[in-house]
Amino acid sequence: MKERLVIIGNGMAPGRMLEKLFEAAPGRYAVTIFNAEPRVNYDRIMLSPVLSGEKTYEQIVIHGDGWYINHGITLHKGTRVTAIDRAAKTITTDNGLTEAYDKLVIATGSVPFIIPVPGHNLPGVLSYRDLDDVDAMILAARSRGNA
Ligand SMILES: Cc1cc2nc3c(=O)[nH]c(=O)nc-3n(C[C@H](O)[C@H](O)[C@H](O)COP(=O)(O)OP(=O)(O)OC[C@H]3O[C@@H](n4cnc5c(N)ncnc54)[C@H](O)[C@@H]3O)c2cc1C
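Above are the sequence and the flavin-adenine dinucleotide SMILES. Below is the predicted complex in structure-token form.
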């Protein structure tokens, strides 16, 4: 029987890790991924060309939906893990799912921090971390003159 590998986060690190894992130990793990972002793994470093209009989101996708299907990976898009029970070896998600694991990878990246200067929480003050931030910046640029 396959070992159950659960991964929290679907960014650049687990994408590369899985490529290596499938080479080193093919068929060993049944992989389940939970990603707060509602999308597949993409090249976050290339968000700037998406922002400038030189590339589209589709052009910076690293692993499309077919890759997950071909490798038998269950990918829960738009699903945030809210709790880990290390004694029971389970995780729980914001939409009420519970998943058991034998091995757990936490690959949740980082969270942008906006310095708490006056005005930091005004509309139009944005962080830059994912595709949603890029969409917000493009929208803001359409309605405002300066950055
Ligand atoms: C615009 C931009 C340009 C960059 N350029 C460079 C560069 O030139 N060179 C370089 O080395 N690095 C660069 N970086 C940094 C690089 O992208 C990150 O270091 C890298 O993406 C980190 O990978 P990761 O897998 O650890 O996390 P991430 O790629 O951040 O992925 C983490 C994922 O986990 C998800 N997540 C978080 N919490 C949960 C949860 N509780 N449950 C489920 N999912 C969760 C998030 O939604 C996210 O999708 C850049 C970053 C940005 C934003």
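The chain has two domains: 3-109, 112-147.
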